[in-house]
């Protein structure tokens, strides 16, 4: 059999490449190296601007040229790094040599020894990962997450007053509204987004074991902790003063745990919508030209929600592993985090793919009010809760002597389908006050929705 030409192994780099392409700008190997170059250049500029370790300020146009080169990191630099790493067998050292080469091209060879000075590889790596993950969340994951919340909120408002039979334990239960049930997911997801927004993106910049030993050996008169804090915060990150060789990755674990939690809520949403489609509460809007089944032409399958489920599970498999792995490093440093962190994009990629599927799926469904109404009308027994609760209040108020109201309604409604006529007859025969009786006689399954409509107002606070 003739072998295929080289193919992407991951579907994120194959079938779904276009949908997750934005993550490649930051969380690919090239994206990581671009961030490394940025950090190395900014450190060198900082040293010259503050005349540290023998450096002296360089012309503004030289600084601008260095930063422009770093920002324009592209295929030429990717290729050069790959060639250099074949010799160095060390990715960060290859980046150092790349920066040195640019200094030579700009006539700044006298600054070459300031490149990567006082840095362990992890000083560059931890800042680069923090920058790339922060950008990936802000530019790619978060906007999609917000769009899903926004569409859910729009539909919650659209269906705010549409009565719907609840299903507790899969059985008919006290009615609600479709809008309120969607609003529950909006509220849950917004809470997670607020917590994700509160994450600190921490960085360390303190040398081989986090002690500034080399820094003080070279220049004992400089306040290197102040320099470190100023440099890290100048990159838009939060400074971590107490670390080993590595930044402890607790912020990463917190972030991935919270995204995984958000994924699980989305998974719950996908299974609920799938189930509502299954019982006809939602109609699917056929997509022109699309095939639902290869053999059954009548079918429109809820594939968007099924695909979302699978991708959320894959995302969490990676994110949960990262959250567990990254918080442990033997003594002052081991390399377990190195391979693990290269899969951050995979974990976020499957979440992004799921968000796209959910958003498309939500755009391809419409509520079926006639199905919802018919289901409510077929389940008058759900008013048993209201009746027995009213009787209890009437007994307490001295307007009734009915013994054990719950048992009375259990006998009437349990494992039985009863209609409006039977309930009306039952209520009319109750020994309760007239006002309570009239309230019960006015109730229908479609109006027994409590404060469901008003509860949506809490989304606007």
Automatic annotation (TrEMBL):
InterPro entries assigned: Fumarase/histidase_N, Fumarate_lyase_CS, Fumarate_lyase_fam, Fumarate_lyase_N, L-Aspartase-like, Pur_lyase, PurB_bact, PurB_C
Q: Where is the Adenylosuccinate lyase PurB C-terminal domain?
A: 329-449
Q: Which residues form the Fumarate lyase N-terminal domain?
A: 15-308
- Known pathway: Purine metabolism; IMP biosynthesis via de novo pathway; 5-amino-1-(5-phospho-D-ribosyl)imidazole-4-carboxamide from 5-amino-1-(5-phospho-D-ribosyl)imidazole-4-carboxylate: step 2/2; Purine metabolism; AMP biosynthesis via de novo pathway; AMP from IMP: step 2/2
Name the chemical reaction catalysed here. N(6)-(1,2-dicarboxyethyl)-AMP = fumarate + AMP; (2S)-2-[5-amino-1-(5-phospho-beta-D-ribosyl)imidazole-4-carboxamido]succinate = 5-amino-1-(5-phospho-beta-D-ribosyl)imidazole-4-carboxamide + fumarate
GO BP: 'de novo' AMP biosynthetic process; 'de novo' IMP biosynthetic process
Q: Which domain of life is it from?
A: Bacteria
**Might you give the EC number(s) for this enzyme?**
4.3.2.2
Catalytic class of the enzyme:
lyase
Q: Name one GO molecular function term.
A: N6-(1,2-dicarboxyethyl)AMP AMP-lyase (fumarate-forming) activity
**Assigned keywords, A-Z:** Lyase, Purine biosynthesis
Q: What does this protein do?
A: Catalyzes two reactions in de novo purine nucleotide biosynthesis. Catalyzes the breakdown of 5-aminoimidazole- (N-succinylocarboxamide) ribotide (SAICAR or 2-[5-amino-1-(5-phospho-beta-D-ribosyl)imidazole-4-carboxamido]succinate) to 5-aminoimidazole-4-carboxamide ribotide (AICAR or 5-amino-1-(5-phospho-beta-D-ribosyl)imidazole-4-carboxamide) and fumarate, and of adenylosuccinate (ADS or N(6)-(1,2-dicarboxyethyl)-AMP) to adenosine monophosphate (AMP) and fumarate.
Q: Which NCBIfam families match?
A: PRK09285.1 (NF006764), purB (TIGR00928)
Family named by the database record: Belongs to the lyase 1 family. Adenylosuccinate lyase subfamily.
Protein name, UniProt field:
Adenylosuccinate lyase
């Amino acid at each position: 059999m003739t072998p295929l030409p080289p193919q992407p192994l991951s579907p994120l780099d194959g079938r779904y490449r276009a949908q997750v392409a934005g993550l490649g700008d930051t969380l690919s190997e090239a994206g990581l190296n671009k961030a490394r170059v940025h950090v190395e250049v900014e450190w060198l500029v900082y040293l010259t601007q503050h005349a540290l370790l023998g450096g002296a300020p360089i012309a503004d146009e030289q600084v601008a040229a260095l930063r422009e080169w770093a920002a324009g990191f592209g295929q030429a630099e990717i290729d050069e790094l790959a060639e250099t790493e074949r010799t160095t067998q060390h990715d960060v050292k290859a980046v150092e040599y790349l920066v040195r080469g640019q200094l030579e091209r700009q006539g700044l060879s006298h600054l070459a020894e300031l490149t990567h000075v006082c840095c362990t590889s992890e000083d560059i790596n931890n800042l680069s990962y923090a920058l790339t993950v922060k950008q990936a969340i802000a530019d790619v994951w978060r906007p999609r997450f917000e769009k899903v919340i926004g569409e859910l909120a729009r539909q919650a408002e659209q269906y705010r007053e549409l009565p719907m039979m609840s299903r507790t334990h899969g059985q008919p239960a006290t009615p609600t509204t479709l809008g309120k049930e969607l609003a529950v997911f909006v509220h849950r997801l917004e809470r997670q987004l607020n917590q994700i927004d509160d994450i600190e993106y921490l960085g360390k910049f303190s040398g081989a074991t986090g002690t500034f030993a080399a820094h003080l050996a070279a220049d004992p008169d400089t306040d290197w902790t102040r320099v470190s804090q100023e440099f890290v915060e100048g990159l838009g990150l939060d400074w971590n003063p107490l670390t080993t060789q590595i930044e402890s990755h607790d912020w990463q674990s917190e972030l991935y745990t919270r995204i995984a939690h958000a994924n699980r809520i989305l998974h719950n949403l996908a299974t609920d919508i799938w189930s509502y489609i299954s019982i006809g509460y939602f109609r699917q809007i056929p997509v022109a030209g699309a095939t639902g089944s290869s053999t059954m032409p009548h079918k429109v399958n809820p594939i968007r929600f099924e695909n979302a489920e699978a991708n959320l599970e894959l995302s969490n498999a990676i994110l949960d592993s990262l959250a567990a792995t990254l918080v442990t490093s033997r003594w002052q440093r081991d390399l377990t985090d190195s391979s693990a962190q290269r899969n951050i994009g995979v974990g976020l990629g499957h979440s992004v793919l799921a968000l796209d599927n959910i958003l498309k799926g939500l755009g391809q469904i419409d509520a079926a009010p006639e199905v919802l109404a018919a289901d409510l009308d077929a389940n008058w027994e759900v008013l048993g809760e209201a009746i027995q609760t009213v009787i209890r209040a009437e007994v307490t108020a001295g307007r009734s002597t009915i013994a054990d109201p719950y048992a009375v309604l259990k006998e009437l409604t349990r494992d039985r389908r009863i209609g409006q006529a039977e309930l009306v007859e039952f209520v009319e025969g109750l020994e309760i006050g007239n006002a309570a009786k009239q309230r019960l006689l006015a109730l229908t399954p479609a109006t027994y929705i409590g404060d469901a409509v008003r509860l949506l107002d809490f989304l606007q606070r």
